[in-house]
């Protein structure tokens, strides 16, 4: 077990008990970073309990919208990974006002603290869904944004806020692909995780839509991307937007008709081709590979097998419980 290193900056991870955060925090601690987590624990506390006595770990229970709690979390911090948000189309649609407040206003509060405390490293978790109805062509960081959901719209607004050069800060925006794979704060509402759960429990997987594109990204590789940005020279990442994923991991959804039975023996796949999903984006990831030497190490197949094994093990009593979705 690594102890905090004197040459590693202290990193605040907002939303650090979430699906990404609970993987990233462990990775940072293992690399010797002192870590502060700010989280309001919407989905219980079991994701971080084993870290309570870990050297270099500090937890602040609170919300990015609460000034006193946010200020306490920022004490002694030299870098910030801002993950805290209402995440996903369904979660944002349930309460639009809360989504806008939590995502946009929350990001503004984090930015204010960074400026007030001269914290120059701010990494922001955005999403490739900002491309929305992107068609069949490859989408680059400077491609037009065409969000078709409130969730994606809030991320566009956050990006605009953070990348406004007048604020004097040069943050890094990471546009994440569609996530999958095991995390201590497990989610089964993500597409591949849901397919793996469905196939394991019932032997049948239903996919709505066939021709739309999605880039897939394992949550372990998400954490690796944030670490790569933290450890890169600041001039390589400051003010930059990176699509995060791999060109190998762009899929039309109909491809999973063949992939899923290879990963979940005996699973049958039914595709409702008549269902049209306006969200379709085939994303190019050359920039992050060229700038940082980053590429993914886990595939969609890896995630499907991993989550299938998790569900089949019986370790999670009720994978369909509401606590495993946003």
How would you characterize this protein structure?
This protein is an alpha/beta fold and 326 residues long. The chain has two domains: 11-179 and 216-244, NAD(P)-binding Rossmann-like Domain (Rossmann fold), CATH 3.40.50.720; 183-215 and 248-278 and 299-324, UDP-galactose 4-epimerase, domain 1. It is built from eleven helices and 14 strands. It has a seven-stranded parallel beta sheet, with helices on both faces.
Supply the key terms.
326 residues, alpha/beta, Rossmann fold, UDP-galactose 4-epimerase, domain 1, seven-stranded parallel beta sheet, three-stranded mixed beta sheet, 11 helices, 36% helix
Summarize the model shown.
By secondary structure, the chain is of the alpha/beta class.
Task: Give the amount of beta strand, in percent.
Answer: 15-25%
Q: For this entry, what is the oligomeric state of its chains?
A: single chain
**Mean pLDDT, rounded to whole units?**
93
CATH architecture of the largest domain: 3-Layer(aba) Sandwich
| Biggest beta sheet attributes | 7 strands, parallel
The radius of gyration over CA amounts to 19 Å
User: Which sequence of strands runs across the widest sheet?
Assistant: 3-2-1-4-5-7-11
The level of helicity is 25-40%
End-to-end separation: 32 Å
CATH homologous superfamily caption of the largest domain: NAD(P)-binding Rossmann-like Domain
Following the backbone from N to C, one meets helices and strands in this order, namely EHEEHEHHEEHEEHEEHHEEHEEHH
The number of strands is 14
Structural class determined from secondary elements: alpha/beta
Low-confidence stretches: none
CATH topology of the largest domain: Rossmann fold
Number of domains: 2
- Give the class-level CATH name of the largest domain: Alpha Beta
- Please tell me what the overall shape is: globular
Q: Please give the count of helices.
A: 11
């Amino acid at each position: 077990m690594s102890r905090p290193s004197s040459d590693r900056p202290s990193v605040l991870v907002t939303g650090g008990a979430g699906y990404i955060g609970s993987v990233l925090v462990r990775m940072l601690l293992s690399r010797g970073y002192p870590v502060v987590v700010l989280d309001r624990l919407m989905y219980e506390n079991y994701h971080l309990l084993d870290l309570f006595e870990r050297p270099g770990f500090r937890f602040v229970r609170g919300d990015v919208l609460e000034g006193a709690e946010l200020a306490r979390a920022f004490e002694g911090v030299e870098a910030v990974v801002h993950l805290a948000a209402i995440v996903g189309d369904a979660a944002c649609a349930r309460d639009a006002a809360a989504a806008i407040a939590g995502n946009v206003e929350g990001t503004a509060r984090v930015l204010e603290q960074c400026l007030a405390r001269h914290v120059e490293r701010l990494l922001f978790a955005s999403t490739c869904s900002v491309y929305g109805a992107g068609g069949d062509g490859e989408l680059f960081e400077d491609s037009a944004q065409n969000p078709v959901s409130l969730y994606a719209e809030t991320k566009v607004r956050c990006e605009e806020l953070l990348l406004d050069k007048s604020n004097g800060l040069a943050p890094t925006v990471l546009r994440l692909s569609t996530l999958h794979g095991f995390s201590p704060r497990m989610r089964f509402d993500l597409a591949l995780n849901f397919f793996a759960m469905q196939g394991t429990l019932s032997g049948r997987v239903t996919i709505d839509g066939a021709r739309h594109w999605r880039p897939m990204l394992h949550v372990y590789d998400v954490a690796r991307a944030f670490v790569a940005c933290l450890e890169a020279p600041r001039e390589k990442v400051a003010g930059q937007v990176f699509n995060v994923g791999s060109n190998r991991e762009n899929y039309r959804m109909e491809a999973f008709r063949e992939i899923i039975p290879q990963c979940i023996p005996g699973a049958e796949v039914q595709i409702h081709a008549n269902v049209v999903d306006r969200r379709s984006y085939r994303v190019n990831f050359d920039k992050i590979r060229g700038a940082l030497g980053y590429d993914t190490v886990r595939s969609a197949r890896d995630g499907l097998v991993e989550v299938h094994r998790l569900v089949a093990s019986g370790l999670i009593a009720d994978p369909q419980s509401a606590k495993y979705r946003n």
